[in-house]
Amino acid sequence: MSSFSLYKTFLAITACAMLVTWQAATLPPAAAQDATHHGPTPEQKAELERAVHAAVQHDMQAVAQYPLPKDFFARMLPLMQQIEQAHLSPPKATPNTTLAMSIRRTEAMQPLQPLLQRSGMTARDFVMGITCFGMTEALIQKHGQTHGNLPPLNPANVSLIKEHDGQAQELIQIMSAEDEEEEGLL
Fold it and tell me: DSSP states of the chain as a string?
């Protein structure tokens, strides 16, 4: 399984959206202007690009440095299994989805709230944890390749994931099963 499939799963999609937006925001202004010929003025586009770049940079740093709790797998694996059994669908993310938007969408998922409470998590804990896991795992799988201008990963998270490789793979399988189910419905 490719590490990219992690980004298409339950809320880890936010990490992908941030990466896509990060790349788009770092395009040279001429390339961005050539992409569309209608819509906002070049000045408005430039301002939007600066705002998106700043938001994505903040979110990427927050995800990269977010401290996964030591009991992350003990709490997240049962929660993800319960989510899967309840057939809950993840909120959809777009390239302009911020972490705050994902957290609000998760808070609005009423059927998810009791599951989060039983797991001792808030919507923020869940979104940050699963997004951090997805991004960290994906970058670990790249085996030290350079990651452009991405902020450095939290070394404690890298160690935690490597120390719990079996549980990490189990979580990836659960997330991939949800992704495959979702693709089958399209």
Answer: --GGGGGGSTTTHHHHHHHHHHHHHTS-HHHHHHH-SSSS-HHHHHHHHHHHHHHHHHHHHHHHH----TTHHHHHHHHHHHHHHTTPPPPP--TT--HHHHHHHHHT-GGGHHHHHHTT--HHHHHHHHHHHHHHHHHHHTTT---TTPPPPPHHHHHHHHHTHHHHHHHHHHHHHHHHHHHHH-
Each residue of 53-93: pLDDT tens digit? Answer: 788 888 989 999 999 999 999 999 999 999 989 988 777 66
Count of CB atoms within 10 A of residue 118's CB? 12
Q: Considering the chain, what is the average pLDDT of its residues?
A: 78
Contact predicate 137/168, CB 8 Å: yes
List the one residue out of 91, 124, 96 whose CA is nearest residue 11: 91
Comparing 185 with 133, the larger pLDDT belongs to 133
Share of the chain above pLDDT 90, in %: 45
- Single-letter residue type at 49: E
